[in-house]
From TrEMBL:
Pfam families linked: C1_2
SUPFAM superfamilies: Cysteine-rich domain
Record protein name field: Cysteine/Histidine-rich C1 domain family protein, putative
Domain Phorbol-ester/DAG-type: 9-58, 199-254
Native source organism of the sequence: Theobroma cacao
Domain of life: Eukaryota
Gene Ontology terms for molecular function: zinc ion binding
Keyword annotations of the record: Metal-binding, Repeat, Zinc, Zinc-finger
Keyword Zinc-finger belongs to the record: yes
InterPro entries: C1-like_sf, DC1, PKC_DAG/PE, Vacuole_Formation_Reg, Znf_PHD
Keyword Membrane attached: no
Length: 779
């Protein structure tokens, strides 16, 4: 009994699993016990119900509302929430995704009629402001994505500015849990005159990780990791995004200044709150408190004191009782019956139960009853955004600061940048924008820590325009982003294919992306390409991975990744999965699932995940996070690099057993192994006793001994029956720049940096492996 999924290349066989089997379903991530389907070659397991739910879903579709890219079925994220880009609803489970641009559809929208979707899209985005699904808001470092509120349980969140529940259309950063109503995006002031710090205005600014909020005393980055805060740099006074919305409201005879109410919801870290001590009784403040931020004064409500029963002239029929919190209904909006302004339902209030009369504490106790009725506990009013844009543009430029130029440009960087000339100490530093080596004049941020490589910009990169028109995408403008959207580490440039963790230019509507070097190039790169580039697949499925892999070039010098197969450093042509970070060398993509080697002719070796053990060829440990070739019957395992070295055996009179060539790829592997796994690992020549590591050598797997190539006594000139001329021994040979090189004897691929025999008279038109030509030669 078997089932064939439309999204999987192999048929899945019916199995019965026991409770002791530690197997999880690849769709729902729950343990499998009982009947299930399995693909043993791919190590894929599905509950019977999960398999039947996926049976007829195609692996790949083309959708009319996203015709530029294919959409891939993703059924492995049952617990992960996503936003459907047509209906904008938050959902979870099986969906279709674009592996290039983060476009996602739920199953309903993926297969509903095209006309219905167009009507839905037009209805949901009737406003011109909604044409942009991604915005870069000035109060948050990460791009904000357009969402539609869903009533699905567990998705209820509040707007990060007005603290009201999210409804309708809103923008958000799901990774930071930062959301803004669409109508709140233009209400947040960029500068604020706040009573907590009346001497200077506070400006939106990104602070370092060790900065505390002067109001709640908590670490600002701990509360809002990517959200800007209100700061006075002159006085080192800082307010996090939430505390900036608090205001002192209670005037009491116990203190000269107005006091501010702090409830439990004003402290995201409850442990930090418990460190606050009341200045009157010197006990910890374990509940709500009043605080004077200017004086750093804390008071329990009972120590102010706030009387448990009070009277007010606006409600003379009954006394008012102090209550912890009151929600008179479920409408979500709650008001004070004295000042008639909105109140926080989690705060303590004065309450008349008989009349359902509810008031702020300050509205009852403040001596000035007239002004008390006008005191607001809601968010501050917004400042005219257009007026501030003009002010902000005036700040963009250089100013002289004691003969040293300073650049202030918030769009580029949150801190002021100091002018500098690149010297020898910048030798290994790279521009944050274009990712090229620093040279000539530039700017450095003295506030960003050096242990994360600091923050450096070329002078020309510090003045990049915020928007450009580019001939490769002439129908829309491209906007400057200092970090990639969609919470990814880098993007793939649509012009050159390079990965770019630096600045990018992006068309939000088409998701067209250019890195800085391509965006600023006067003439686009020539359309001519090599034969290999023309034939190369830009996206593909691979047997080792369930998601689609995209072609890209890893050339950024600071971005280090290891191949998921061989564990060697990634640099150059690569295939990458944006969904989960799976990455393969282009050469590893061609590795066969099974292979046979002369050292073990009785069984085939299968490519599988390496868990433990040693390589039978080099005697080094298997890499626990990589793959290896293994014989399950004989329990033999080989590193991928070592298995490739075993394809051809060399027989010499100087040794009784076959010898195997360990060349360039093994030396790369060994360098990585000795650096990160075993610094004492080494190989020595059995003939001369000198070290073999760092150069090509031959190894006998039966005797576990090694020989330098010169110690094997390879002839410098040979005569082969496969060619008319004598062949000359050479350490390497690259005949062209096509990127693929073959042995002319066995017609199999060879490594261009390995030792070979070649015909000098034919100018390298005949090149062979050493082993291929020394099988039967005439010296």
């Amino acid at each position: 009994m078997e089932i064939k999924l439309a999204s999987h290349e192999h048929s899945m066989q019916y199995h019965c699993f026991h409770e002791t089997d530690d197997i999880l379903c690849d769709k729902c991530s729950k343990k499998i016990c009982g009947a299930a389907y399995a693909c043993l070659s791919c190590q894929l397991w599905l509950h019977e119900s999960c398999a039947k739910a996926l049976e007829h879903l195609p692996r790949e579709i083309t959708h009319p509302l996203h015709s530029q890219h294919h959409l891939i079925l993703d059924w492995s994220g049952i617990t992960n929430e996503f936003i459907c880009d047509i209906c904008l609803k938050i959902s979870s489970g099986t969906n279709y995704v674009c592996c290039r641009c983060d476009f996602e559809l739920d199953l309903v929208c993926a297969f509903s009629a095209h006309d219905d979707q167009q009507a839905m899209k037009k209805k949901e985005r009737s406003s011109a402001d909604r044409d942009k699904q991604i915005i870069q808001h000035y109060c948050h470092r990460d791009p904000l994505v357009l969402y539609k509120h869903s009533s699905k349980e567990g998705n209820d969140s509040n707007c990060s500015w007005c603290d009201k529940p999210l409804t309708g259309i809103f923008y958000g950063c799901k990774g930071c849990r930062f959301f803004l109503h669409e109508f709140c995006t233009n209400k947040i002031p960029k500068t604020l005159n706040h009573p907590f710090h009346p001497s200077h205005p506070l400006r939106l600014h990104f602070v370092d990780s060790n900065t505390n909020c002067n109001a709640c005393t908590q670490l600002i980055r701990q509360r809002t990791a990517s959200t800007y805060s209100y700061c006075c740099q002159e006085c080192n006074f800082n307010l996090d995004f939430d505390c900036a919305k608090l205001f002192p409201t209670l005037k009491h005879e116990c203190h000269d200044h107005y006091l501010t109410y702090f409830g439990l919801n004003n402290f995201k870290d409850k442990i930090i709150k418990y460190y606050l001590e009341c200045n009157t009784c010197h006990e910890l403040c374990l509940d709500s408190l009043y605080r004077c931020v200017q004086c750093d004064l804390n008071l329990h409500l009972k120590c102010v004191p706030i009387p448990p029963i009070a009277e007010h002239g606006y409600h003379t029929c009954h006394q008012l009782v102090l209550e912890n919190s009151i929600k008179e209904d479920d409408f979500g909006e709650y008001y004070c019956d004295i000042c008639e302004e909105e109140r926080d339902p989690t705060h303590q209030v004065y309450y008349c139960k008989k009349c359902t009369y509810i008031t702020h504490i300050q509205c009852v106790l403040n001596k000035d009853k007239t002004s008390a009725g006008k005191v607001s506990s809601s968010a501050p009013e917004s400042i005219d955004s257009e007026a501030f844009v003009e002010k902000e543009m005036e700040e963009f430029g250089t100013i002289d600061d004691h003969l040293q130029q300073t650049l202030v440009r918030p769009l580029i960087h949150e801190h002021p940048l100091k002018f500098c000339e690149a010297t020898e100490k910048f030798e290994h530093q790279y521009c944050r924008a274009c990712r090229l080596t620093l040279s000539g004049p530039g700017y450095i941020c003295e506030e960003c820590p050096l242990y994360i490589h600091g923050y450096y910009l070329h002078d020309k990169c510090s003045h990049l325009p915020s928007e450009i028109q580019h001939p490769l995408h002439s129908h829309h403008g491209l906007n400057l982003y200092t970090r990639p959207p969609h919470m990814v580490d880098f993007i793939i440039c649509d012009e050159c294919g390079d990965i770019s963790p630096g600045f990018i230019y992006l068309c939000e509507e088409c998701d067209f992306k250019l890195d800085v070097k391509c965006a600023m190039r006067a003439v686009p790169k020539s359309e001519l390409s090599t034969l290999k580039e023309a034939e190369r697949e830009t996206e593909l499925f691979h047997f080792s991975h369930k998601h689609k892999l995209l072609f890209c070039n890893f050339r950024d010098p600071t971005y280090k990744r290891q191949c998921s197969f061989c564990r060697l450093q990634i640099f150059g042509p690569t295939y990458y999965c944006f969904r989960c970070g799976w990455v393969l060398h282009e050469s590893c993509l061609k590795l066969p699932q099974v292979m046979q080697v002369p050292i073990h002719p009785q069984h085939i070796l299968a490519l599988s995940y390496a868990r433990y053990g040693f390589c039978h060829a080099c005697a080094l440990k298997l890499l626990s996070a990589g793959y290896s070739y293994s014989c399950e019957e004989c329990y033999l395992s080989f590193h991928i690099t070592c298995a490739d070295s075993l394809r051809r055996a060399l027989k010499r009179d100087s040794h009784m057993h076959d010898l195997y060539y360990f060349g360039t790829e093994f030396q790369r592997f060994f360098a990585m192994y000795s650096d990160f796994i075993d610094i004492f690992a080494g190989y020595f020549c059995s003939h001369c006793g000198e070290i073999c590591s760092g150069q090509a050598f031959y190894r006998c797997l039966e005797c576990h001994i090694n020989f330098h190539l010169e110690c094997v006594t390879l002839p410098q000139t040979v005569k082969s029956k496969n060619h008319v001329h004598h062949l000359i021994f050479k350490d390497s040979f690259i005949e062209d720049d096509l990127g693929e090189y073959y042995c002319d004897a066995c017609e199999k691929e060879r490594h261009p940096n390995d030792h070979i025999y070649y015909c000098e008279e034919c100018q390298g038109l005949f090149v062979t492996h050493i082993e291929c030509v020394l099988l039967k030669v005439n010296l």
